[in-house]
């Protein structure tokens, strides 16, 4: 399967907060193959917003452990954060999909890509690149037993819908569909 | 813990004392302990003269505990409540306060001993919250048992002083042998007694504070002691707190440690800080919290 090398990002026609956005490419190929980081089994989505951006000794403090509980075919884990008990499930990304941790090219501190100023260059510039990849992620609930009704699990429905909507139609499919009812 | 085959005296009318250790500290487990024996053994028990366990030195307490364990006329049980459980229960969506946790632990001990087949007829406990309310709660739960709920029960009833030693030694050992979950460098285990006033404990807290994670899970996050340390902590906004402020909170009048007191802010933040409102998107996306990302 051919892997997408990059994708194009651009601001929508009308943006709240003014225009001035830039169309650019985010490069999903590793900038430097030797610095590739695989974060599979190490990405966690917490049920809270942490007002901090930057490195953190997650693996030293965040210690999930397996409960002997299985829900909808997945094994439930338990962890604590700021004293609260969380329960989580590891969800694999579907076949053909990959998760990326993106970094904006403009500022290495991960300040974000938005509104990089009015683009003056004529060509399409690379505005960001992939720093790490992951093939699953673990999401955590506070006081709600994880299940397939959780928003993250349901959001993955989009993959099959997108496939159905955007997969190119093959010549065979075209010919097997009649266009005129008798 | 306790004796394995049920001793003969357990089929006679028995009395039990329950006491706790580690309720005040900001670190480590809280332990509920009980001591039980035949009512006929009561006089002998009194002559063993435990005194108030808090006034005894640690070595003396250890010695007494070993004596109690060796005495075949006595049985004992403990419930060691992990600090993670304490924090978790007190910070749940529907919070369980410390008194309730305490009551449940005592109830658990009585259940355990009854289920072993011991003929419990009288139980002596220290007051937690309103004494009469507590007594009624216990009596309703165990109709065949007579409960005596008193202040300073450990100085009034030998079974309770004995239970106090069981609890205290168990707690001391648990803290002494505690293995930190966390693996960060520079952590150490000189946490002192765990009491907020203990300079050793204060120094340990100072040293182990992390701006994102707070403290190691040995610490009871729900304790007011943590508040001053959380002054400069990174802000964390929880989905569950947000829902609470929207009025659907069933907690009502229960007096709880306010989350704002432990450094969690609420109310003032817009919901947009956690997730977008989903305005203008069709139901399929809204329900799945999917949004088109324009700036990131």
UniProtKB/TrEMBL annotation, chain A:
Read off the Gene3D superfamilies from this record. Answer: 2.40.128.680
InterPro entries, per database record? RNase_H2_suC
Provide one Gene Ontology cellular component: ribonuclease H2 complex
User: What domain of life does the native source organism fall in?
Assistant: Eukaryota
Which GO biological process entries does UniProt record here?
Answer: RNA catabolic process
Record region (Disordered): 1-25
What protein is this chain from? Ribonuclease H2 subunit C
**Which species does this protein come from?**
Phoenix dactylifera (Date palm)
What phylogenetic lineage does the species belong to? Eukaryota, Viridiplantae, Streptophyta, Embryophyta, Tracheophyta
TrEMBL record, chain B:
**Organism of origin:** Phoenix dactylifera (Date palm)
**Domain RNase H type-2 residue range list:** 13-235
- The name of this protein is Ribonuclease
For this record, an example GO cellular component is: ribonuclease H2 complex
Cofactor notes: Manganese or magnesium. Binds 1 divalent metal ion per monomer in the absence of substrate. May bind a second metal ion after substrate binding.
Any idea what job this protein has? Endonuclease that specifically degrades the RNA of RNA-DNA hybrids.
Q: Which reactions is this enzyme annotated as catalysing?
A: Endonucleolytic cleavage to 5'-phosphomonoester
- Keyword Metal-binding assigned to the entry: answer is yes
Gene3D superfamilies, sorted: Ribonuclease H-like superfamily/Ribonuclease H, Ribonuclease hii. Domain 2
The record's family statement is: Belongs to the RNase HII family. Eukaryotic subfamily.
Identify the PANTHER family for this entry.
Answer: RIBONUCLEASE H2 SUBUNIT A
Cite the CDD domains for this sequence: RNase_HII_eukaryota_like
Which EC numbers characterise this protein's activity in its record?
A: 3.1.26.4
Which cofactor names does the annotation list? Mn(2+); Mg(2+)
| GO terms, molecular function | metal ion binding; RNA binding; RNA-DNA hybrid ribonuclease activity
């Amino acid at each position: 399967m051919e892997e997408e090398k990059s994708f194009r990002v651009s601001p929508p026609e009308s943006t709240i907060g003014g225009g001035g956005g830039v169309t650019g490419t985010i490069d999903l190929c590793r900038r430097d193959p030797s610095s590739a980081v695989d974060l599979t089994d190490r990405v966690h989505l917490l049920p809270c917003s942490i007002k901090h951006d930057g490195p953190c000794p997650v693996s030293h403090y965040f210690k999930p452990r397996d409960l002997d509980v299985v829900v909808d075919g997945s094994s439930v884990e338990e962890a604590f954060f700021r004293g609260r008990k969380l329960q989580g499930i590891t969800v694999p990304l579907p076949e053909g999909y990959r998760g990326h941790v993106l970094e904006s090219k403009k500022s290495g501190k991960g300040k974000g890509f938005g509104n990089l100023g009015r683009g003056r260059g004529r060509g399409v510039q690379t505005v960001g690149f992939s720093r790490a990849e992951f093939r699953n992620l673990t999401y955590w609930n506070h006081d709600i037993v994880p299940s397939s009704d959780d928003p993250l699990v349901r959001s993955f429905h989009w993959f099959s819908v997108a496939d159905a909507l955007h997969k190119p139609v093959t010549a065979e499919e075209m010919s097997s569909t009649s266009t005129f009812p008798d | 813990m306790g004796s394995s085959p049920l001793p003969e005296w357990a089929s006679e009318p028995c009395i039990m004392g329950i006491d706790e250790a580690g309720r005040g500290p900001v670190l480590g487990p809280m332990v509920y302990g009980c001591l039980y024996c035949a009512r006929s053994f009561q006089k002998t028990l009194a002559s063993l003269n435990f005194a108030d366990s808090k006034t005894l030195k640690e070595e003396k307490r250890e010695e007494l505990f070993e004596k109690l364990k060796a005495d075949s006329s006595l049985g004992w049980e403990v419930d060691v409540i992990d600090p993670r459980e304490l924090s978790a229960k007190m910070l749940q969506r529907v919070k369980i306060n410390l008194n309730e946790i305490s009551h449940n632990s005592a109830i658990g001990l009585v259940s355990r001993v009854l289920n072993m087949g011991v003929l419990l007829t009288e139980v002596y406990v220290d007051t937690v919250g309103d004494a009469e309310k507590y007594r009624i709660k216990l009596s309703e739960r165990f109709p065949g048992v007579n409960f005596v709920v008193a202040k300073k029960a450990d100085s009034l009833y030998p079974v309770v002083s004995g239970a106090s030693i069981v609890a205290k030694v168990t707690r001391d050992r648990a803290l002494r042998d505690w293995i930190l979950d966390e693996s960060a460098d520079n952590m150490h285990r000189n946490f002192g007694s765990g009491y907020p006033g203990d300079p050793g404990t204060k120094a340990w807290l100072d040293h182990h504070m992390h701006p994102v994670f707070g403290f190691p899970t040995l610490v009871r996050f729900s304790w007011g002691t943590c508040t001053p340390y959380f002054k400069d902590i990174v802000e964390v906004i929880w989905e569950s707190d947000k829902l609470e402020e929207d009025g659907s909170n069933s907690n009502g009048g229960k007096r709880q440690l306010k989350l704002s007191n432990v450094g969690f802010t609420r109310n003032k933040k817009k919901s947009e800080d956690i997730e977008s409102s989903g305005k203008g998107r069709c139901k399929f996306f809204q329900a799945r919290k999917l949004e088109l990302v324009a700036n990131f």
